[in-house]
Amino acid sequence: MNNRYAVILAAGQGTRMKSRLYKVLHSVCGKPMVQHVVDQVSKVGVDETVVVVGHGAEKVKEQLGDGISYVLQEEQLGTGHAVIQAEALLKDKDGVTIVLCGDTPLITAKTMEALLSYHEEQGAKATVLTAEASDPTGYGRIVRDESGAVRRIVEHKDATNEERAITEINTGTYCFDNALLFSALKLVGNSNVQGEYYLPDVIEILQKNKELIAAFQTNSFDETLGVNDRVALASAENIMKNRINEEHMRNGVTIIDPQNTYIGSDVTIGMDTVIEPGSILKGETTIGIECQIGPHTEIDDSAIGDGTVIKQSVVTKSEIGHHVKIGPFSHIRPLSQLNDEVKIGNFVEVKKSTFGKGSKASHLSYIGDAEVGDDVNLGCGSITVNYDGVKKHLTKVEDGAFIGCNSNLIAPVTIGKNAYVAAGSTITKDVPGDALAIARQRQTVKNDYVNKLKGN
Ligand code: UD1
Ligand code: CA
After folding, report:
1. Which of 120, 210, 221, 290 is deepest in the core (most CB within 10 A)?
2. What is the per-residue pLDDT for 150?
């Protein structure tokens, strides 16, 4: 097998997006477009990936991280000019270079692999990935001769009416013989409507040099969708959403209403889990088997065990065990850890807290910066008073403790093992194990008060 290299073009501003965010950083199913492309390239496995950055270079690098090479295109003079920036890194290498655009987020590793294999089998010097488009407006068109061989690619803006009638489009993905790519790029000019150095012009240059040019047509136009504006962004979102949902369903996940279920591309879900309508699962989230998620639940960067039920709730950057019940209307904020069989009920907010096995906060509570042991019952309205206006403080509630309704636990404070806190208490001092703490005023009853008041 040849050495393989990848060049991903990501320097454009994306004027048509009308955005302060650089185009390739706009997300599809929760992940920036260019990250989708890089992730798929890494599945194919290439010797080196070079990303051409320009507008928002630092932001794009920050997103993609280490492990790939970057070259800077200071001025955006066209896609051909963009590829030339990779010359210093790649020109002396033998092998095949696949060029991709950072704004085609739906392309899959499978299609890249098929394109590379076709290119290699044909012994071609350049192979363009093409597709039939029902509406080819805006795309470059593939111009073939009478024998069907690819002659050149003409941009929509430069095309004659006759050429615009061609429905076979340039997807913006190509394979090239690496050395020929960089020698041909030197010959690309910019006398066209946009005054840009077009990468597709390399095809005509190589063709005129009698090099073998191939075209590989994918039957999935969807996969090659180029996102230039927000209308296309919404189409990409919809296509990817359907693709992701379908894969989960084929793997044994029930999705009640796929149109209204939004699952990020890095989420994993176990068998027999049911995802109810209106749920959004994002980031690096893993969900176990036999869970019920939703309706209307948002989970981000969290791990959920098996058999857990989460209804109408938000869970962020947290770890949830097996057979946990959350919601309706709970908020689990970052760095929380709920062990098996925990129950967090309606209108309960948990922040940076751990709950041991079987513990419960069933109604109307705020538990922040707390270590809650096993089998603890936090009554309705339990509040950890964790913030003194300057610092956050820890509350510890040890195994088996019982906190009566409407109690304030003023941190730092520890409630010992099996201790009881009477309802309505404001606890300011540690409570020893097995003790009962009552910290409220005694009740006074004034008999016959009302009659006296009314003068009866
Ligand atoms: C390009 C192709 C077109 C193809 C379409 C597929 C050219 C001239 N045209 O058109 O034939 O049908 O993609 O989606 O290549 N970029 C840079 N530097 C630049 C210019 C662009 O890095 O100087 C990057 C952009 O960030 C983008 C990609 O190259 O990720 C494609 O550029 P774009 O302007 O979107 O090209 P299209 O007009 O869509
Ligand atoms: Ca584009």
Report:
1. 221
2. 96
Domains and CATH numbers, the chain: 4-224 (3.90.550.10), 251-437 (2.160.10.10)
This prediction's pTM:
0.90
Question: Distance of alpha carbon 81 from its chain centroid, rounded?
Answer: 31
Given a contact cutoff of 8 angstroms between Cβ atoms, the answer to whether 395 and 384 are in contact is: yes
Structure tokens at 283: 């980031």
Contact present, 409 and 395 (Cβ < 8 Å): yes
Model pLDDT, residue 1: 67
* Residues near ligand 2 ion, CB 5 Å cutoff: 103, 226, 228
Q: Does residue 1 sit in helix, strand or coil?
A: coil
Beta-strand relationship, 402-403 and 377-378 = parallel
Other CB atoms within 10 Å distance of the CB of residue 428: 13
By residue count, the chain amounts to: 456
| Interhelix angle 201-208/178-185, nearest 10 degrees | 100
Residues in the chain predicted with pLDDT less than 50, given as ranges, are none
- Residue 363 among the catalytic residues: yes
Strand, coil or helix: what is 436? strand
| Ligand 1 atom showing the smallest separation from residue 13 Cα | 26
Phi and psi at 68, nearest 5°, equal -130, 160
Query: Helix, strand, coil shares of the chain as percentages rounded to 5?
Result: 25, 30, 45
pLDDT in tens, 265-285: 999 999 999 999 999 999 999
The one-letter amino acid at 254: T
Sign of dihedral through CA atoms 351, 357, 359, 360? positive
- C-alpha–C-alpha distance, residues 160 and 162, integer Å: 5
Residue in 156, 296, 363, 393 annotated catalytic? 363
* pLDDT confidence of residue 280: 98
Residue 171, token pair as written in the block: 């997807």
Which neighbouring-strand residues pair with 176?
Answer: 97, 126
Q: Ligand 1: residues whose CB is within 6 Å?
A: 9-12, 24, 52, 54, 73, 76-79, 81-82, 101-104, 139-140, 153, 155, 169-172, 198-200, 226, 228
Q: How far, in Å, is the centroid of ligand 2 from the Cα of 226?
A: 5
Q: Which atom of ligand 1 is nearest to the CA of 80?
A: 15
Element (DSSP H or E) covering residue 449: helix 449-453
Nearest of 98, 72, 75 to residue 85 by alpha carbon: 72
Alpha-carbon gap, residue 245 to 255, rounded angstroms: 8
